[in-house]
Here is the input.
Amino acid sequence: MTRRSYHRASESERREDLINATLDCIAEFGIQGATVRQIATRAGVTGGLIRHYFDSKDQMIQAAYRQIMENMLEPALTAADQDLPARRRLCDFIVANLTPPVTDVKMLSLWAVFIGQIRIDPAIAAIHRENYLVFLNKLEDLISCFFRERGEVIDSERCRQDAIALNGLIDGLWLEGTLAADMFRECELAQTALTSVERLLGLRPGELSA
Here is the structure.
């Protein structure tokens, strides 16, 4: 394990470095195997400095999981918030979830490590729930805006059900594609998702995927 070179950094930069070092150590040793000393070495700081930013290892683990979830959500949320027609924003949101950097093997590995903690760590479960709701609410909003743009109004219950189904579709394709990326052509998963969403929402072929 290599030590990062020391450099003067701001408080926020130092905290971000510690979170990234925590993720590196978790990827290499797992949650139980990643010690505060290893994290300090990876970040190029002392254990005492870590305690300035985090009260405990558990707090560092929670911050690291929050960072992973934000890294997974940010590209799609950014795509969805563009000043574009609703059809384009929904399409871009779906594609962003199934292309790099979201479809990254290291991100998948870290997600898999953390997902096992949800049933035993209430803090990790709360972070997971919070980010799931952000994702689901954004999907509901995109679906509602898309149909409104088409001159249709769908009730909130249908919108919620469609969002849950779309989330499951995206999750499944993301997991499959990231585990076996070499089995798929470039952008094949994103295109598959778009055509599947058309069927799920009862759209014309090509309405999203064209």
User: Anything to note?
Assistant: Residues 122-149 form the longest helix (28 residues). DSSP finds nine helices and no strands in the chain. The radius of gyration is 20 Å.
